[in-house]
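Quiz preparation item.
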C-alpha cells in the first residue's frame, strides 16, 4: 500500500510540491492504491469554490465498511480491531477481532434493515463509549444510512434539536452510561428529547448499566434480543462516492448547530491517508485516541482512520481521573500503547497532579504522542514532551476541524522537527494561506492573518445539512474562492504555522467548540434576564472558560444573586449541557453597544481577560460610560 508515506523532510517537500502542482494525480494515486472499489472514478475532483460545490472521485462506487472490515479478514481476521477498555478498571478489557467486528456489524446492519432503515435514512446514535457505539456507526455505513452521532454529554433539548434538524427516523441509545464514578441516565434524556421529535419511529436500547428505565410500547426495543436473532453476515450497500456518510453537529456563531455533512469516498481516502502519515502507523501498533466518538476526532481517528488501515484501536469508556489520575498512564502500560492522541485540556489537568501518577507506569511502548482540539500552550507542550514522550516520542500538534474531516496541519513524526505550540506544516495535499483584512493573500513568512485553504481536499465537508446557503456564507464568502477556517494563524520564519485561536464568536472550552450565541439564547430565556453577552477568558486547565455579562429586567430585583447564578447555570445545563456552564457571571446595568446596537465583544473580552490597558476605538459606542462600571465590577 502506498499513501505517499513520508520518510524524510526531503521527501515531504517532494510530495508536497507534487500535491500542489498536480493535485489530481496526487489524490488519484492514493485512492487507487489503497482501497477496494466496486467501480473507480471518471474524474478525481470537480469544484466551484464560489458556490461551495465540491465533489471527489466522480461516479466511483464504494462502501467504507468493506474497506474498514471485509478486506482485512483474509490477512487480519484474528487481529484485534477494537480493544475496549471499560470505565471500571476491574472490568475486563475486550479484544474484538476483525472477524468479530465483521459479525457484530453485520448483525447490527441486519437489525437496522429489519427495522425498516434504508439507504439515506438518518439514524441518531446517542451512546456511551462502548463497543456497540462503534458497531452502530459502522452498521449505518454498511447499509448506507446516515449516522448522526450526538455526544452523550448533551442535554435533552440539544439532542432534540439535532434529531429534528436532520429528521432522524431512529435513535440508538442505552439504559445508561458510566463516566468515572457517575452514571448517566441516557435513556431518560432520550425520552425527554423525544417528546418533541415527531420523525423518530423507533428506539433501540443497549443494556449497559442495568438501570431501571421506561420502555415505550411500540417505540422502544432492547437491542440484544434482536441481535441474537440476526445473521452474522451481511451485504454492504453500494454507495456512490458522493453519497452522504454522516452528519455531525458543530457549534456555529448563531444559535442553531450546523449539521456538517461528510460524504463517502473523499472522507474515506482522507481519514485513512492522514492516519497513516500523522501517526507513523505500522502493522502491530496499538493506537489509542482518548476522544469521544461523539466528536469528529473520534469519527476519524478512533474508528474510520485506524480501521481503514487495519489497525488496533483502543476504545476507552472512562475518564482520565478515575479511579485516580494515573488512569491514562496505567492503560498505556497495560496495553503497550504505541500512539497516544489526546487533548490539551486533559494534558493540562494531568500536568497539575503529582508526578507519581506518571512515573509509576512504564510508558516505553509509546512512539508518537498527539494533541488536538485547541492551541496547546508552551508549558503543557513541554510537560507532554518531557514526561509522557520522554523527549523521544514526537508530539504531533494536529490542527483540523469537524469541517475538514481529517488532520490538515501537523508535524509528521520523525520527519518534521517539532516546535512547541506550532502545528508546523500542512500535509501534502493541503494548501493553507493567510489572508489580510483587505482579503488579500499574505505572502512570505513571519506574518499573521486569517487562515484559509485555497484548494479542496477530499475530506472537506460538502454542505450543512438542509442549509447550503449557510455553508456558503460561513465558509466561502468571507474570502471569496477560498475555504475560511474561522481561525487566525501566524507563519514563522521557516513557514511553520501556529494557530492562534478563533477569530469568530466560538470559544473552545476544554476542547469543546462552543458558540456563544446559543448559550446567550439559553440565558435570555430565563425570566429575569434582559440581555447577555458571553466571552471566553484564559483558564489554566480548560484553555478558555466562559464569562457572562448579564443585564436583568428589573435591576436589583434579585436579592440573592448567588441563587440567580445557580439558576442560570442550571438553565444552560439543561438547554445545552454542563460543558457550557459559565465560570463567571457579572450582572451589569448595560452592555457596551455600537450605535447600530451591536454588542462590542472586543471590550468585554478584554475586561474578562483582566486587560484594561487599551480598549481601542470606543468612539462609536452609544454608552461609553458603561465600560467603567463593568471594569469596576469585574468578577475575579
Ligand atoms: O480553533 C481550532 C481548534 O478547534 C477548532 C475546531 O474544532 P472542532 O470542529 O470541534 O474540531 C476539533 C477536533 C479537530 C479549530 O477551528 N483546534 C483544533 N485543533 C487545534 C486547534 N487549535 C490549535 N491547535 C490545534 N492543534
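Solution:
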Amino acid at each position: 500500500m502506498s499513501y505517499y508515506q513520508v520518510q524524510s523532510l526531503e521527501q515531504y517537500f517532494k510530495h508536497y510540491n507534487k500535491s500542489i502542482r498536480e493535485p489530481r494525480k496526487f489524490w488519484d494515486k492514493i485512492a487507487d492504491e489503497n482501497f477496494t472499489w466496486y467501480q473507480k472514478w471518471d474524474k478525481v475532483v470537480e469544484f466551484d469554490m464560489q458556490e461551495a460545490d465540491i465533489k471527489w472521485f466522480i461516479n466511483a462506487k464504494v462502501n467504507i465498511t468493506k474497506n474498514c472490515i471485509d478486506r482485512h479478514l483474509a490477512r487480519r481476521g484474528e487481529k484485534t480491531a477494537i480493544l475496549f477498555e471499560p470505565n471500571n478498571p476491574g472490568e475486563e478489557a475486550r479484544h474484538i477481532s476483525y472477524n468479530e467486528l465483521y459479525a457484530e456489524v453485520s448483525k447490527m446492519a441486519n437489525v437496522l434493515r429489519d427495522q425498516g432503515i434504508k439507504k439515506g435514512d438518518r439514524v441518531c446514535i446517542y451512546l456511551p463509549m462502548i463497543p456497540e457505539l462503534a458497531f452502530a456507526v459502522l452498521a449505518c455505513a454498511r447499509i448506507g444510512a446516515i449516522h448522526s452521532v450526538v455526544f452523550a454529554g448533551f442535554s435533552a433539548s440539544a439532542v432534540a434539536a439535532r434529531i429534528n434538524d436532520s429528521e432522524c427516523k431512529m435513535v440508538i441509545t442505552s439504559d445508561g452510561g458510566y463516566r468515572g464514578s457517575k452514571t448517566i441516565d441516557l435513556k431518560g434524556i432520550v425520552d425527554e428529547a423525544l417528546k418533541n421529535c415527531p420523525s423518530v419511529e423507533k428506539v433501540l436500547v443497549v443494556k449497559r448499566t442495568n438501570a431501571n428505565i421506561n420502555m415505550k410500547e411500540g417505540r422502544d426495543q432492547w437491542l440484544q434480543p434482536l441481535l441474537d436473532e440476526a445473521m452474522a453476515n451481511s451485504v454492504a450497500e453500494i454507495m456512490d462516492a458522493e453519497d452522504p456518510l454522516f452528519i455531525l453537529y458543530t457549534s456555529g456563531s448563531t444559535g442553531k448547530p450546523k449539521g456538517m455533512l461528510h460524504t463517502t469516498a473523499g472522507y474515506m481516502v482522507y481519514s485513512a491517508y492522514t492516519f497513516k502519515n500523522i501517526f507513523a502507523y505500522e502493522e502491530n501498533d496499538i493506537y489509542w485516541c482518548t476522544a469521544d466518538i461523539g466528536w469528529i476526532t473520534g469519527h476519524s481517528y478512533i474508528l474510520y482512520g485506524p480501521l481503514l488501515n487495519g489497525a488496533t484501536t483502543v476504545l476507552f469508556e472512562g475518564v482520565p481521573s478515575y479511579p485516580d489520575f494515573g488512569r491514562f498512564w496505567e492503560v498505556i502500560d497495560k496495553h503497550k500503547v504505541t500512539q497516544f492522541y489526546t487533548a490539551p485540556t486533559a494534558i493540562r489537568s494531568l500536568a497539575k497532579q503529582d508526578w507519581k501518577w506518571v512515573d509509576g507506569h512504564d510508558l516505553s511502548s509509546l512512539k508518537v504522542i498527539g494533541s488536538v482540539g485547541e492551541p496547546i500552550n508552551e508549558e503543557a507542550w513541554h510537560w507532554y514532551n518531557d514526561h509522557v514522550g520522554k523527549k523521544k516520542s514526537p508530539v504531533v500538534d494536529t490542527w483540523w476541524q469537524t469541517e475538514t474531516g481529517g488532520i490538515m496541519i501537523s508535524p509528521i513524526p520523525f520527519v518534521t522537527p517539532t516546535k512547541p505550540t506550532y502545528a508546523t506544516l500542512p500535509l501534502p495535499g493541503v494548501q493553507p494561506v493567510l489572508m489580510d483584512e483587505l482579503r488579500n493573500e499574505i505572502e512570505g513568512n513571519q506574518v499573521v492573518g486569517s487562515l484559509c485553504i485555497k484548494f479542496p481536499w477530499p475530506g472537506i465537508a460538502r454542505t450543512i445539512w438542509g442549509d447550503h446557503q449557510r455553508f456558503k456564507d460561513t465558509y466561502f464568502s468571507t474570502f471569496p474562492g477560498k475555504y475560511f477556517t474561522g481561525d487566525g494563524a501566524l507563519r514563522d520564519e521557516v513557514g511553520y504555522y501556529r494557530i492562534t485561536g478563533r477569530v469568530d464568536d466560538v470559544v473552545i472550552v476544554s476542547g469543546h467548540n462552543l458558540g456563544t450565541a446559543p448559550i446567550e439564547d439559553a440565558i435570555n430565556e430565563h425570566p429575569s434576564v434582559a440581555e447577555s453577552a458571553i466571552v471566553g477568558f484564559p483558564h489554566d486547565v480548560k484553555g478558555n472558560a466562559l464569562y457572562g455579562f448579564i443585564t436583568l429586567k428589573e435591576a436589583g430585583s434579585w436579592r440573592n444573586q448567588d441563587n440567580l447564578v445557580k439558576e442560570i447555570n442550571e438553565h444552560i445545563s439543561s438547554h445545552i449541557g454542563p460543558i457550557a456552564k459559565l465560570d463567571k457571571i457579572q450582572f451589569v446595568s448595560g452592555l457596551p453597544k455600537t450605535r447600530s446596537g451591536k454588542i462590542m465583544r472586543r471590550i468585554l473580552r478584554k475586561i474578562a481577560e483582566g486587560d484594561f490597558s487599551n480598549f481601542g476605538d470606543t468612539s462609536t459606542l452609544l454608552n461609553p460610560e458603561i465600560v467603567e462600571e463593568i471594569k469596576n465590577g469585574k468578577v475575579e
